[in-house]
Recover the amino acids of this structure.
C-alpha cells in the first residue's frame, strides 16, 4: 500500500535538510496563543521520518513552539520508520515517560499505533492518519490545505499566458489528489481555457525526477508550475517561469519565480489538544477543522509581487476576496480525492 512518506537514502535526507534550511518561514510557528494553565504537560513526538521531512517537521515545529512558551515538556523520536519499530518505540515512551499526550504520524504504521493507543487509554494519542478517531483516546488529523491550493490555482490561471499549467505530484493518493484537484478547480474557475497537465513521479522525495517532469511539462507549453513535490521550483527558476510551492512558504527558494502556495500550520490543532487535556475534557475526535483556513490551520503564502513579470493587482484582489469568502463560510472548496486526469481543461 502506498503511503504519504518520503524516500529513504542519505542523498534524499541531505536534500531534505537543505529544503528546510532554505525555508525558515515553514517552521517559524508563533508561540501558543492559548496556553493552558497549570504545570507543563508531558508531550512525546513519534515520527516515522526525520523531522527534516516537511510533513512531520510541521508537527514538530508547532510542539517546539509550545515548549518554548513553557506550555509543555517536549521530547521526540524521529526516523522510526515502517519496519515494526513504531510499536516498540511507542510502548517504551508510554511506559518510561508516562506522557500526557503522544503526537505523531500513523501513515504506514496505522495498526501498530492504534494497537498501542488501545493499551494506554490514559494517554491522548493524536496522530496524522487516513483513518478515523477511536474512543476513548485516539484522535486523528491531516493536512487539509486544499482551500489555499484552490486560491493558488486561481493565481496560476490568471497568470498563464500560454493557457497551459503544469502540476507535479508524488502519488495519486487522497491527500495529494484533493490538493491537485482544488488547484485545478481554482485555475479553471478564473480561466476556462486553461489546460492543467498533471504528472505523478511515484516518489515522495525525488527532486531530480520532479524537475525532469516539470521540464517535460514546460516543453509541452506550460508557463506556470505547481510544485506539489520538491524539485519543480528549480525547473521554473531556470526557465524564468512562475511557480507555486506546497506545505510552506517557499519564496526563498526562488524569489523571482515563486508566487505563493498552500501552507499548513499545526498550531491551532496543538493549542486545541493541549487545552483539552489540561482541562480534563479530552475526547477522541477528527481534528480536521483545525487544519483548515477558518481556524488558521491552512493559509495562502503571502503573494509575492516581486516575481519576474509581477502579479496584476486585479488578480490579487479577486483572490483576496475569494479567500475572505472561504474563511467566512460563504464559499466552499470541494474535497475531491479522486485521481486527477493527466490533462484537465475548464471546458
Amino acid at each position: 500500500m502506498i503511503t504519504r512518506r518520503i524516500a529513504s537514502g542519505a542523498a534524499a535526507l541531505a536534500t531534505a535538510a537543505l529544503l528546510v534550511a532554505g525555508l525558515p518561514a515553514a517552521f517559524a510557528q508563533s508561540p501558543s496563543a492559548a496556553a493552558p494553565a497549570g504545570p507543563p504537560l508531558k508531550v512525546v513526538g513519534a515520527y516515522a521520518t526525520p523531522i527534516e521531512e516537511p510533513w512531520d517537521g510541521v508537527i514538530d515545529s508547532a510542539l517546539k513552539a509550545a515548549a518554548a512558551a513553557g506550555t509543555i515538556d517536549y521530547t521526540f523520536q524521529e526516523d522510526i520508520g515502517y519496519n515494526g519499530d513504531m510499536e516498540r518505540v511507542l510502548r517504551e515512551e508510554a511506559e518510561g515517560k508516562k506522557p500526557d499526550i503522544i503526537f505523531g504520524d500513523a501513515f504506514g504504521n496505522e495498526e501498530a499505533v492504534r494497537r498501542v493507543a488501545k493499551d494506554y487509554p490514559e494517554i491522548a494519542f493524536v496522530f496524522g492518519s487516513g483513518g478515523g478517531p477511536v474512543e476513548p483516546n485516539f484522535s486523528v488529523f491531516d493536512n487539509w490545505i486544499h482551500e489555499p491550493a484552490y486560491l493558488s490555482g486561481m493565481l496560476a490561471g490568471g497568470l498563464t499566458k500560454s493557457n497551459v499549467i503544469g502540476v507535479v505530484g508524488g502519488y495519486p493518493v487522497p491527500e495529494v489528489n484533493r490538493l491537485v484537484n482544488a488547484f485545478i478547480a481554482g485555475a479553471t474557475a478564473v480561466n476556462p481555457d486553461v489546460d492543467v497537465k498533471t504528472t505523478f513521479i511515484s516518489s515522495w522525495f525525488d527532486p531530480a525526477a520532479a524537475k525532469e517532469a516539470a521540464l517535460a511539462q514546460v516543453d509541452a507549453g506550460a508557463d506556470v508550475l505547481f510544485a506539489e513535490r520538491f524539485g519543480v521550483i528549480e525547473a521554473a527558476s531556470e526557465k524564468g517561469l512562475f511557480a507555486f510551492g506546497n506545505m510552506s512558504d517557499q519564496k526563498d527558494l526562488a524569489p523571482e519565480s515563486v508566487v505563493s502556495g498552500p501552507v499548513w500550520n499545526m498550531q491551532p490543532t496543538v493549542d486545541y489538544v493541549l487545552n483539552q487535556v489540561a482541562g480534563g475534557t479530552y475526547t477522541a475526535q477528527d481534528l480536521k477543522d483545525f487544519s483548515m483556513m477558518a481556524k488558521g490551520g491552512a493559509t495562502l503564502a503571502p503573494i509575492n509581487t516581486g516575481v519576474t513579470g509581477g502579479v496584476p493587482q486585479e488578480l490579487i484582489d479577486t483572490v483576496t476576496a475569494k479567500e475572505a469568502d472561504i474563511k467566512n463560510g460563504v464559499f466552499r472548496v470541494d474535497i475531491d480525492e479522486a485521481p486527477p486526469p493527466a490533462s484537465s481543461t475548464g471546458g
Summary: Residues 1-33 have pLDDT under 50 and may be disordered.
